[in-house]
Amino acid sequence: MAQEAQKEKSMVLQKEMVEGLFNDLDSAKEKGRKVCYTFIPGNLSELIRTFDMLPVYPEINALQNAMRKKSAAYIREAEKHAHSEDVCTYVKCDVGMMLKGNIGPTGQKIPEPDILLLSYTGCFTFMKWFETLKREYPNATVVMIHTPYQENGVMTPEMTQYMVKQLKEEVIPKMEEVTGIKFDEEKLRRHLELSREAEDWITKIFDTTKHKPSPIDAYFAGVYYIGPINIGFRGTQQAVDYYKELYGEIQERIRLGLGPITPEGEMKEEKYRLVVEGPPNWTNFREFWKIFYDMGAVIVASSYTKVGGVYDLGWRHDPSRPLEALAEYCMNCYTNLNIPQRIDLLSKCIEEYQADGYITNSIKSCNSFSAGQLGMMREIEDRLDIPVGFIESDLVDPRYFSYSNIKNRLESYFQMLAQRKMMEAHEAIHA
Amino acid sequence: MNSLPKLIQQCKDLAFDLQFTRSREWKAQEEGRVVVGYMPVYFPREIIHAAGGLPVAIFGGGDRKQIIKGDAYYQSYICHIPRSIIDLALDGHTNHFDGYLFPSICDVIRNLSGLFKLNKLGKFVKYMDFPQNFLPEIGGVFYQQEMQHVLHYIKEINGKEVTAHDLNHSIALYNTNRRLIARMYDIRQEFPWRMTIEELYYVLRAGTVIPVEEHNDILEQVVAHMEKEIGEPQDKIKVVVSGAFCEQPAVGLIKAIEEAGCYVVDDDYMLGSRMILGDIDPSTDKPLEAIANAYIHQSQYSSSIYDVHNPKEYRLAKIVQDRGADGVIFASASFCDPSLLDAPIFQKAFDEMGIRYISFQYSENINQFKVIKEQVGAFSDSIKLWEDDKALVIA
Lengths: 431, 395
Description:
The complex is a heterodimer of chains A (431) and B (395). Chain A is built from 18 helices and ten strands. The model of chain A has no long low-confidence stretch (mean pLDDT 95). The termini of chain A are far apart. In chain A, 52% of the residues lie in helices and 11% in strands. In chain A, the strands form three sheets. Chain A has a four-stranded parallel beta sheet, sandwiched between helices. A four-stranded parallel beta sheet of chain A has the order 8-7-9-10, with helices on both faces. In chain A, helix 15 crosses helix 17. Chain A has helices at residues 9-26, 28-31, 45-50, 58-67, 71-80, 89-99, 124-136, 157-179, 185-207, 222-225, 227-230, 237-256, 285-294, 322-331, 339-352, 367-370, 373-384, 403-430; strands at residues 35-37, 54-56, 115-120, 141-146, 261-262, 265-266, 272-277, 297-302, 357-363, 388-393. Chain A has 431 residues and is α/β, with parallel strands linked by helices. Chain B has a domain at 15-160: Rossmann fold. Chain B is built from 15 helices and eight strands. In chain B, strand 1 (34-38), helix 3 and strand 2 (53-57) form a beta-alpha-beta unit. Chains A and B meet through helix 7, strand 4, helix 8, helix 15 and helix 16 of A and helix 5, helix 6 and helix 14 of B.
């Protein structure tokens, strides 16, 4: 019999928040609430809340569907309608779900959008995705905010101004028009203040992996931790309370000298500390995670948990410059960083969290992450003299998750790490 | 005037010269000359020209270069062009280039700019973030700032301060270039037998690696030949090819489509050279603004430009109608997100509009077209034999 997953209290809280959001969406139309479809990277949660709208995140629906084993059928449905096998499976899962009646992962119907807010941040496919959605929802108001790429590794004043102008002259007026609510800058500032607080907490939480053993897994559990801050709760007291609670739990684990909690209980021995680049596979998430914890591998940092915002380097939403803060937030999401910035950030994680290895999970259908990963891996290997590993899977298409291939590769990788550790220990004795 | 076969051969040699010899020669002719490479799809070449530079397109190695180093940078499920571009650069084919420009087209080309930075290729590497906001006072201003950055990079190399006069002069030259190219397509629309699509392709592609003045000279001669009654009409349908705007199909494939019974009366192979429709104002005291406004108001549809206010399916349908085409061939590079993500939009709309189409995928280095040729042949036959029937869809 399959062992029941153990859940931390914070996970339960998070589940309640997500369920609450889907319940609100379920009753949105009868309660007259406006619905805004948008994406995680560059999500303007505070602005959406300022206009009392409810957010729908198509990629969250896709990954939730994958975790519930529903994505394969949706992808097949989209492919029947000329969607190529080679493109983003989040898009196909979302389109397939729509074609099948738009019943969300929880079994509740996802309401149609009143507004399609495309914060075009770090992913070209988002733009194509919304071109598709616009044709499916011709009555929705489309709002595009173009986020300039950090091509030179900086956010320049002109880039910020470009975004602020878009917010002032396009995004906000359209939101006012759709919702009938006048923009309230003070309300936005209050949300931003709470965002800043939540960002402080989540930074502290991911920083706890400095401890040995690490009290958390910053990838597999990390994807749960980023849930509230990414799916519309950033800017709320609820999110602050959640992160405070989570931080308290983690502090207790540190005090007791405990490692991360896995679906099969507490991880007994931390053998390897890893940094992971790339999103996880969602269709076989538990199996994927199990390969790691069975081998005593804990992820001490991951790029994926920065996809909805990079807070490690000190950036926070600044309520005193509300629109500039929204602009900078969008520009500062992980996939909007250039390749050298991504390398620097991951190198910093490897050093600060004393990682033994660096793994790339290359996602077949996500070019935003995947294109360039091999060059990044080589650079990190050269720069830090750290063993690197490479596996391939996909976001939500189960056809591209090969358990045995991934397991074989990881086992070989862990053997290499073990040998390296042995040699280092040997050298230390004889030094 | 040179003979047409001689001009075609000259263009063919230039277009596929992976050593970029003409730009090497051009650079060596005068001290301080700057060569700037740009990736597909579109770049406002006028500004490089005005700054005393030579813009040179890098379309990859096609089927003419074995890729070794490039494969170490890209997974098998990423399109072919980035690996062949980086392979060319790492193998020294572009070592006389001073800088590289990566126009925003997709995540792959965007991230390729980072790999060029990492490998310290060229004196500058710039990802050119084209605006997706189409208000002149917002997106247009941002675009002008992006162009200013490029001019700044070139000035750091050659010290040239670009004036409005310089820019207007360059704009005028490229206006001529666009007009001549448009004329070639217009002639082919009516008399497609006067020049094959393969030959047309050579002529256009040559223009992306040589000075615009030289290309205009070639174009004038080619157009003069095309104005004459040459060639023999054949029983072929007319088609528009769409989707091959970045990674280029092998010439064999371009040729195979016509050999299989189609006259290609419009295409997006060399979209960058035809992106701006009509002239850009060459007489203002704000030429960068004129270029930006042309991009905003006069751009051809493209998979890299957000289109919800000007849907691409209707724009392509209009091209089909204006060209008197019988159908559309959607040709997408394998793993090309922009093209493949547009496919369902086009196909759904064309089913509703009754526009006939077929679709296939290719890779720049693949030279086996038997299946595609059969598919295109069947498409052509079906239209020729049953042209009064309702729209026929093969996909």
